[in-house]
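Structure ticket #2291
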Amino acid sequence: MEEFKSIFEGLDVAYGQHQSEGKRADGKQEGKSYIVKKLVTEELWNDHLHGKGPSLGIIPIMADNTSKWGCIDIDTYPIDYNKIIHTIRKLKLPLIPCRSKSGGLHLFLFFKNPVAAKLVREKLREVASGLGYSSVEVFPKQSTILIEKGDLGNFLNLPYYNAKNTTRYAYKDDGTAATLREFISLYNKYSVAGTDEVAIQVSQDVIKDGPPCLQQLCTQGFPQGTRNNGLFNIGVYLRKFDPDNWKTLLEEHNRSHMTPPLAAAEVIIVQKQLEKKEYNYRCKEPPINAYCNAGLCRTRKYGIGQSGAVTEFGALTVQLSMPRVWFLDVNGHRLELSTEELQIQSKFQRKCMDILRKMPPKIKESLWQETLQSLMDKALEIKVSSDGSVAGQFEAYLQEFCTDRAQALNRDEILTRRPWTEEGKTWFRLKDLQDYLTRNKFTHYNGGQLVARLHDLGGKSDKFKLKGRTTRVWSIPAYQQQNSEFDIKEVDSAPF
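Resolution: structure written out below.
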């Protein structure tokens, strides 16, 4: 258990659980996933390996935004397990394939020491694209998490639930199931020191400084039925690379990289298409869609450039507090959003401007709603206790503000930013409470939400004449204050 725990070390202040809800028509198991905001105890690890209770899900990104492991989650069914295992071994990739809970395939990459989550994600995205699975998810799903805001990232269900009789096992190099002990041996064999030890070899002499998808396909060959579309995309590249000689070069690429080469008449048709206007790459069509690495492609001189610079949304997480708090990946950056900021496109744009210094292009409202609904359908829930919720945090800060500070001795001293308590009520100025919350980095409530919450707690607004001027103040029922000292054990006064 200790070895298993060390291998899958992740965030230790929360864990994931999954509730099964049957199977889809393609065989994938469905269910609802959520995060429990509690410490990951030794008992949870032990119960997982012994098949007791729900299986354990671990969040791979740690509080310092590093990861000791990552995973490519292949859930496009049906899956040819043996073919994928053969491919990763042929390419000498240090991945360990495991059968997932849903019957898919998890390709794990393990590190001997923590690596920046951003680098892990970039490497896994590169490998997934090189394997022809560019559209699948990779874990960690985030490069950073806003843990101080209650953000916890996304978890992955671990293998070897009920280890002695498990359906979630690793595959050995020969394609047979590995026991837990054999899995640990695989870890010792394939774990690496850093991302630079992981690479899919492609020819850099072909498609120089062009899309990585075309480099990959020219290296390994274009699948049957994709030669025409493949040659068209090569033509888009060649027109950018060598505008004067692109036609001749296209014919050479046809002979070199199409098996068998297209007939001369078909090549001429492609050339005539490309002459009509300046086309962009057909990124959403086969064969290049399966090998897409948009992030890397944007850095290439003859890549997608600004034509592919659309807003990329990652995982959405919702904290089940009142009000709700949403966390969304936008172009690789993590944003904290209110429900209103998520719902209304203009407010979302403003948030991106404030945090990312970029404004995503506005899209049709129907498409925006469709995008949000798709994100919410897959949103991961964070369950919080009453004291861990936003409302619970606010009440704790409010009590501290009213009781743990120097108290005003009379009503006028409210102007010195101190609360004043008398006859079962505590009085204060709203702006003094707001300043206190800001200093403690509590920024979840805007002015309207703060007022509403005070009303919920029995608060009332009033006006006082303080030092000759009218001042708006708030009152809430007074909190009970500590009326006795702590018991402190006496110690000898002997010198150290």
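Closing remark: The chain has four domains: 2-197, 212-308, 313-360+376-383, 394-477.
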